[in-house]
Design brief:
With 416 residues, this protein is an all-alpha fold. It folds into two domains: 252 residues, Cytochrome c oxidase-like, subunit I domain (Cytochrome C Oxidase, Chain A, Up-down Bundle), CATH 1.20.210; 148 residues, no CATH class. The protein has 13 helices and no strands. 49% of the residues are buried.
Length: 416
Amino acid sequence: MARKFRFDARTRTEIILRYLGGGFVAFLALLFWLAVDPRAWESGGLRTYALLHLDVLGWITTVMLGVYLNLLPVTLPRTRVNPRLAEVAFWPYGLGVILLILGFGTGRGELLLGGGILLPLVLLILSLHLVWGVWPAASEMLRNPTALSYLLAPLSLGLAAILGGLMALSLGGVLSPSALTLAPFHLLLALGGWLVLTVMGSAYRLVPFFFATPTPRDEASFGSLPVLLWAAGLLASGLGWGWGRSLLLSLGALLFAWDMVRMMAHGQHRKREPVQILTQVSFLLFLVAALLWSLGRSLAVSPWPWMGAALYLALFLAPSLLIFAQLSRILVFLTALDLLQRKGIRTHRHWNLSRPRPALGGGLLWVAGGLGVALGGVLPPWGPWVGAGLQLLGGLLLLGSLWPSLWARRLLRDGG
């Protein structure tokens, strides 16, 4: 029998505030970094590695862990999560991220060594705990893509953490430079495994919630087949199977896209809400990123402007917009439930926890500015600067749209 952990409103609030707070600090650092140097993401060298790790680890993974740890007991009731471990793990995780980014930014081996030991250790513990937590739902994994994705995603995270730790030890001078050849597998597991599989698993639950599809669990036309095909494609990539890899990944992505389009088309809302528009735009940006990447690979001369733009869209612009779209509904929903359960705090009827207009306006500015930054290589010299300014304004508006819910959660934590 699965052990039950106490996951009450106060515990959820503490986890949300810690992980979202840390992620938002990294997000603001990214915004101001790009506002000062819009071409930093493609400058190459250790500075680019620092920027990428600030994006993927400091911003995206931190927020995704906070959301993941809160959604897991809700989306898969048979699972088990130890909230105490989630709370305590935040501090060494944050310290490891800071050490790693400072190590890349300054080129100091001792900082890379410290981050390369601490961060993989914390991520490995968290990933093993999450795999153990999802395991009670193993019986429904073939028909429930969320259950399968939520098992494979932390498994990929743990493996990526091990490989990342080995590479950091190599950069720190402990291991031989040959460990750096693990970089492609590290990226494959971190991006294609952890990030993509988490997005796929969450989308099968959250998109029906966003678009009010009548029967969320029955909306997966192919069961867990898209997730299985994608995971098989990742395995084929690791084994070096060229055509098999492309076929499996493409089929998995196409079936997943079909499910998402069908869910969105079957929504009950006649008027599209901001969360729905932002969700659709974020998926469209992922598609544009794939097209730009294909275009860059097909060019024999100067492919980087297009492939660099694809990486920027896929690793920062699109996932950030999707995160804010998810948070604008998830945070309001969980906060409203917790406010209703707590005595001495007014119910959600007296709170305006949502700011749809700033969210929509911020999202549109975010996309317009981000495209200016991403396509800076083919725009006039002032293009990236204008894009970075619009992106900064859009990001601040997106953050501001979540402020009422975050403030309400702070009151929940403080008891009134």
